[in-house]
Amino acid sequence: MDTPQRYPLFWPAGWPRATYRQPARFGTVSQKPGQSHASHSSLSIEQATKRLEQELDRLGAKDQLLSTNQELNLRGIPRADRGEPSDPGAAVFFRLKGRDVALACDKWHRLADNIAALAKHIEAMRGMDRWGVGTVEQLFTGFVQLPAPEQWWNVLGVKRGADADTIKAAHRRLALEAHPDKHGGSTNAMARINSARDRGLEELGLG
Predict the structure, then answer these.
(1) Cβ-contact 196, 158 below 8 angstroms
(2) Are residues 50 and 116 in the same domain?
(3) Residue 167's CATH number
(4) Residue 34 buriedness (CB in 10 A; 0-12 / 13-18 / 19+)
């Protein structure tokens, strides 16, 4: 199984991506003396990351790892001086009572808001635990990290980033054995390498 990394974004296997994104208001509210209305400021990446870390600590999560498409600063958290990444999704991986858990969010336009949404989700699930109906561990059962899907480059026996000619050559070589008309071949085996070829070419923008 591929190992999650902090950068670039490692999206959990089987977790759906948002079809469109919305603006969010995971900001900070303040009201100075003499002001008639409170002011709202957008949440920073650093503030959102701190919220998430605090909620994970309260949960008792171990081996915490936040993954995004934002480069990291020297402290190992997403940088705030690079603007918004083209993909503002955020995923967090951790261990809870011996289980590997993954959560992800890309519903919102801003990376900071998606990180804050993860914190809010964990906070809400901790709150449900207080009512005594179930445990936190039971609540998180549905978010156990799934094995990563089979990668096309592993199927074809090439390196990720291989060019189109290499991908096609590997496919032709494997097709000699996988074709249903060949001894030991099958429809499923052929479909597997066809899919790997198609995904590889698609990643090159040739699909």
Answers:
(1) no
(2) yes
(3) 1.10.287.110
(4) exposed
CA-based radius of gyration for the chain: 22
Q: Are residues 42 and 122 in the same domain?
A: yes
The answer to whether the beta carbons of residues 195 and 186 sit under 8 Å apart is: no
* Three-class DSSP category at 113: helix
Neighbour tally for 119: CB within 10 Å: 22
Same domain assignment for residues 107 and 49: yes
Q: Reply yes or no on whether the pLDDT at 13 is more than 70.
A: yes
CA distance 43 to 192: 45
- E strands within 22-122? 28-30, 39-41, 62-68, 90-96, 99-105
Pair of tokens at residue 85: 């990444």
Q: Which of 72, 71, 63, 113 is nearest to 92 (CA)?
A: 63
205 pLDDT band, cuts 50/70/90, is confident
Q: Alpha carbon of 201 to those of 72, 139, 156, 157, 187: distances in Å?
A: 30, 40, 12, 15, 21
pTM: 0.64
